[in-house]
Design brief:
alpha+beta; Rossmann fold; OB fold (Dihydrolipoamide Acetyltransferase, E2P); 3 domains; 6-stranded mixed β-sheet; 8 helices; 30 strands
Length: about 475
């Protein structure tokens, strides 16, 4: 759990980083306290490794400041920072044995031989490698090599250890055991560990605090329990564990409407009749008789997972995932109940109808009943609608009016897929173009952090004249 009484050792203030014109870190702020295990978690390309490299001094931010123990260290090179890094590939020296690999940094400092021997021996005991001093590192298992790399990083007594996906090369069973060993090593050494991963289980297992990142920004910081039980938005809920994420309407304080039914919840302050995202974890749904359920659905699949059954239930057109120790037969109709405390309400990542374009008509063809306008440098043609040149028009596009187009044929050519969240009936996709974000719905899975062409179906749009064409144009 968090301990806010601990002293802050590293602070990132308004850090901004760009590579080749692309924003990698978008003005992030982060305080890390001494002796805590902090995990930076997020999908590929979210900026987590860049954040680690900023702390290590391998990258200088374009904007913002890095503070260590209250002192600004933006221009301090890596070797002058009391920080060591453990990489995924370990970077051990194959021609040196275990002892000499761990002793390498101490020999660079020209410490006496007896001091080096004492420090290395003590550190190998901490990582449970006592007796392996003369072993060739190439003869060690992956987990043992990992511990040598950690011992080498710790033996020089840094305040902070940076770990960049260090378990990524291990098999699943070894990875799980090393998660527990890493946490134990951190507690024994009383060092600050800053760990980067895209693996949610690792983050929840090892961390005192988790920093969830997405698209160069920090979405949420909190204990593993807070991140899992109280996600701030649909991205965090979807990324951390499994969740049913549904579109809902906040009727009033402590009253939510989902799938046509009104349910009690404990959240307040969202306003009346406000569109929201609703998160219900699969394990929080109780199976009941249909007449006793808040929701009713048909079981379409049931898989035994060892500890529980994983069931898919269709509630109308919406799929609900349930984890339960009791099984319901496929094809049966069941009731579903959730206590108010287990219904989490969140603001939407984007307002549902946010796809609004305000444009001025640049070309019009009355005979073909069409017009054109400019959008982020691209010429967009609208058919079956006519407005005179110079008319300013507001175009409202519902999410279902957006679709991914074939190569080179979209209205916008290079749009970035920021997030894909399954909402039971469809995927809700947020895309980012040069000047704004867009919301679309899709029945297919799309790859996050890729660039795609985006097309608009104007037959589903609403048009409103803001101002008519000027006289004489």
């Amino acid at each position: 759990m968090e301990n806010s009484s601990k002293k802050t050792i590293v602070s990132l203030k308004d850090i901004f980083v760009r590579f080749d014109g692309e924003v990698i870190l978008n003005h992030i702020n982060l305080d890390i306290r001494e002796k805590e295990f902090v995990t930076i978690l997020g999908p590929s390309g979210c900026g987590k490794t860049t954040t680690l490299r900023i702390i290590g001094g391998f990258i200088q931010p374009e904007g913002g400041d890095v503070y260590y123990d209250g002192k600004r260290i933006n221009n301090l090179p890596p070797y002058k920072r009391n920080v060591n890094t453990v990489f995924q590939k370990y970077a051990l020296f194959p021609h040196l044995n275990v002892f000499e690999n761990v002793a390498f940094g101490l020999r660079l400092k020209k410490l006496p031989k007896n001091v080096i021997k004492e420090k290395v021996t003590n550190m190998l005991a901490v990582v449970d490698l006592k007796g392996y001093e003369k072993r060739n590192v190439s003869k060690l298992s992956g987990g043992q090599q990992q511990r040598v790399a950690i011992a080498r990083a710790l033996v020089c007594n840094p305040d902070i250890i940076l770990l960049d996906e260090p378990l990524g090369a291990l098999d699943l069973k070894l990875r799980k055991s090393m998660q527990l060993e890493l946490k134990e090593i951190q507690q024994k050494s009383e060092k600050t560990f800053i760990y980067v991963t895209h693996d949610q289980e690792e983050a929840l297992t090892m961390s005192d605090r988790v920093v969830v990142m997405n698209n160069g920004s920090i979405e949420q910081i909190g204990s593993p329990e807070d991140i899992y039980n109280e996600p701030v938005n649909a991205f965090v809920a979807d990324f951390i564990g499994e969740a049913n994420i549904l579109n809902g309407t906040m009727i009033d304080d402590c009253r939510i409407k989902i799938l046509g039914k009104e349910l009690e919840c404990v959240d307040k302050g969202f306003g009346k009749n406000t569109p929201v995202d609703v998160v219900i974890r699969p394990e929080d749904i109780e199976i009941t008789e249909p007449e006793n359920g808040q929701l009713v659905g048909e079981v379409v699949s049931s898989i035994f997972k060892g500890v529980h059954y994983e069931m898919s239930v269709m509630c109308g057109k919406c799929e609900i995932l349930i984890h339960s120790t009791s099984q319901a037969e496929v094809g049966s109709t069941i009731g579903m109940r959730v206590i108010p405390f287990n219904i989490q309400i969140m603001n939407k990542l984007l307002p549902f109808y946010n796809n609004i374009i305000e444009a001025e008509v640049t070309y019009a063809n009355e005979n073909e009943n069409s017009f054109e306008f400019k959008l982020e440098g691209e010429t967009v043609t609208v058919e079956n609608h006519f407005f005179s040149v110079g008319t300013k028009v507001k175009i409202s596009l519902p999410p279902e009016a957006l679709q991914l187009a074939g190569d080179g044929v979209g209205d916008l050519k290079d749009v970035y897929i920021e997030s894909v969240i399954y909402k039971g009936e469809h995927n809700e996709i947020i895309l980012e173009s040069d000047e704004r974000k867009w919301l679309m719905l899709s029945d297919t899975d799309e790859q996050v952090a890729t660039y795609v062409p985006l097309a608009f179906d104007f037959s589903k749009a609403e048009f409103e004249v803001i101002s008519n064409a000027k006289e004489g144009r």
